[in-house]
Specification:
The structure holds two protein chains of two kinds.
Chain A (H helix, E strand, L loop, with lengths): L3 E6 L6 H10 L3 E6 L10 E4 L19 H11 L4 E4 L1 H8 L6 E3 L7 E9 L15 E8 L3 E3 L2 H9 L3 E5 L10 E5 L5 E4 L16 H12 L1
Parallel strand pairs in A: 1-2, 1-3, 3-4, 4-11
Antiparallel strand pairs in A: 5-8, 6-7, 6-9, 9-10, 10-11
Chain B lengths: L1 E10 L6 H9 L15 E8 L3 H16 L5 E9 L5
Antiparallel strand pairs in B: 1-2, 1-3
Classes of the chains: A alpha/beta, B alpha+beta.
Chain lengths: 221, 87
């Protein structure tokens, strides 16, 4: 039986159906979860998708983290459940304190919508178990606030604990240490700015995202 | 009592401020010389009900820490003055 991946929908999310489609394309079942839900309905993994949750007012993710579903997502993550935040979802997870650091405006102040090449830095995370360290993947980015920032102490810790999951080969947005994705201490919560759900089919120009979302599905199969 | 609260949200020192840098770089091209240290932040204004000014400050600072700012990248300076400003 295939696992069920819950995809959280906030008012203003816009990548939820891409996530559901890519999960089913890879043999899993995607199920939408409303942000007002207080429980996750027994899903096996959670994706917090991209978009503009609550209009990104104040700061991206600042209001979304107070949505009722986030209490359930935090509990699920604390129990070791796999949680992936993509783009705006990554911003939500940092605001919620599930991942360290913050995403600020891109260096150069341009909204970036383009293919990007990322390097897998660890295969020890809920999103990279099918990949090998050093693998290069072509996965598109689509963001204005994707410039990953954290203090030096946090950065040292992320590097020391092998928690940088993905790095840009050619840093497009000024992220510290070329970081494109990080994981939490338990390695079950991963946030990344690139959109693997938009790269799961050759028709879309790349199917490299299948390695990442396939890794997630391996955990819930 | 009602108090008017002004929250000045700034990026913490050491955090890159691409908007400030871009504005600063653009100024000479517009004929403005001698301007430096440009920083872009945001201002949030609201009215708060509190027993006294001290409580208004405490509540506003709590609000900043938990919601209005992201302490990873931002600091806030809170200014409280007596009287509401609902209009």
């Amino acid at each position: 039986m295939s696992g069920v991946v819950g995809v959280v929908v906030f008012p203003g999310s816009n990548c939820e159906m891409d996530c559901v489609e890519s999960v089913s394309h890879l043999g899993g079942e995607g199920r939408l979860l409303w942000h007002g839900d207080e429980d996750l309905g027994g899903v096996d993994a959670v994706i917090v998708p991209g978009g503009f949750a609550h209009g990104d007012y104040l700061r991206p993710g600042a209001i979304a983290r107070f949505s009722p579903v986030m209490t359930a997502v935090s509990r699920f993550a604390a129990d070791g459940g796999p949680v992936v935040g993509i783009c705006n979802g990554f911003q939500v997870l940092t605001e919620a304190g599930l991942l360290p650091g913050a995403l600020q405006k891109n260096r150069g102040l341009k909204f970036l919508c383009q293919p990007s090449m990322v390097r897998v830095e660890t295969s020890d995370s809920s999103l990279t178990s099918r990949a090998s360290t050093g693998d290069k993947l072509s996965i598109p980015i689509n963001h204005f606030e994707g410039n990953y920032t954290c203090d030096e102490e946090t950065l040292a810790r992320l590097k020391g604990e092998d928690r940088v999951v993905l790095r840009y080969v050619d840093n497009p947005n000024g992220s510290v240490d070329d970081i494109a994705g990080v994981c939490n201490e338990g390695r079950n919560v991963v946030g990344l700015m690139p959109h693997p759900e938009r790269a799961c089919n050759d028709l879309l120009g790349s199917s490299d995202g299948s390695v990442l979302l396939g890794s997630l599905l391996d955990l819930v199969a | 009592m009602k108090f008017t609260v002004l929250v000045d949200v700034r990026l913490r020192s050491g955090i890159a401020d691409p908007a400030g840098t871009t504005i600063e770089r653009a100024l000479p091209a517009l004929g403005f010389e001698g301007v430096s240290g440009v920083h872009v932040g945001k201002t949030i204004r609201f009215t708060i009900e509190a027993a006294d000014e001290e409580q208004a400050v405490t509540h506003s600072e709590d609000l900043c820490a938990s919601f209005l700012t992201n302490p990873v990248i931002e600091d806030a300076v809170v200014t409280v003055s007596p009287g509401g400003d609902d209009l």
